[in-house]
Amino acid sequence: MPIVSHQSLGHAGDASLLPAPFPEVQDLAVCVVLPAYHAGKTLEATLRRLPEGCCQDIILVDDASADDTVEVARQLGIDVHVHPENRGYGGNQKTCYRLALDTGADIVVMLHPDNQYDGALVPYLTGFIKAGVVDIVLGSRIRRRDEVLAGGMPPVKYLANRFLTITENIVLGLNLPEYHTGYRAYHRRVLETVNFEACSDDFVFDQQFLVQARVHELRIGAVPVPTHYGPESSSIPLGRSTKYGLGTLAVLGRYCAYRTGWRSQELFRPRARQSRASGGI
Question: What is the DSSP letter of 227?
């Protein structure tokens, strides 16, 4: 079958006058942010997987690590920002997003620097946003149970993931394969809309953020990504995992309250745009 060129399509008669059913794919600037804590052993391997030209900026925010994360990052030539004290996983992301917005990026990709996720897939996550399909893309680790467990995900963590994801889909009216990934891409307007400053500084930040996105009717999608659970991969201890699960259920409860009339919650108000100086980096 012969290939139809764009030039020939421009002379196709009346059909060329029909409105395009899909938006044009945009050339958007991408910034990759790395919320880091004790990632010295895995950072270089994580960055090595990023395809050349997939992003214009790479920012690492170190959350007062006691290892050589900062030294390794500086040797690799990426933009490094250091918290003088530990602010927590959510607090780290808040700094990441403020800095990313200051670069002028159109898309911000959040990638855990523990080499658990494959950075080679950044163009696929950002591609759906550039094509105007969605505003948020999640890198989903869940395709088949045997595949996930063979990749090293602990069975208890898998069961908790499935329970929380099913519950979130029911409450939020979505159909996502998972919500608990450390690999995400956001259009700039997402970060300018949701009040992420009001989210927790702890691990439940991610779930509060997605519920905020649902409140503001932002489009959320997911793509499958392989994962690797090595000895240096980050994990949440049992006690904090329990707190995280309960926090996820709590924010779903707040969403239900919002839907039934409690609209004054700070968590669900639109974000007030802030300058870098007032953002508290």
Answer: B
Condensed to tens digits (0 to 9), the pLDDT of residues 111-158 reads 999 999 999 999 999 999 999 999 999 999 876 666 666 666 677 777
d(CA 255, CA 245): 16
Q: Cα(152)–Cα(260) distance, rounded to whole angstroms?
A: 41
Query: What is this structure's pTM?
Result: 0.87
Check residue 34 and report its DSSP letter: E
Q: Is 10 domain-assigned?
A: no
What is the residue-wise DSSP string for 96-140?
A: HHHHHHHTT-SEEEEE-TTS-B-GGGHHHHHHHHHTTS-SEEEEE
pLDDT tens per residue, range 241-270: 899 999 999 999 999 999 999 999 999 999
Asked if the structure places residue 17 within a domain, the reply is no
Using CA atoms, how far apart are residues 100 and 191, in angstroms rounded to an integer?
A: 10
In a domain, 14, yes or no: no
